[in-house]
Amino acid sequence: MPSTAPPGILEPFLAAADSAASSRSDVDAETARALMAEAAGMLHDGLVLDHLDDHDLPQVVAALAADLTAVDPGAAVRARAAGVADDDPALHDPDGVRGTYLVTVQVLGL
Question: What's the chain's average pLDDT?
Answer without folding.
Answer: 95
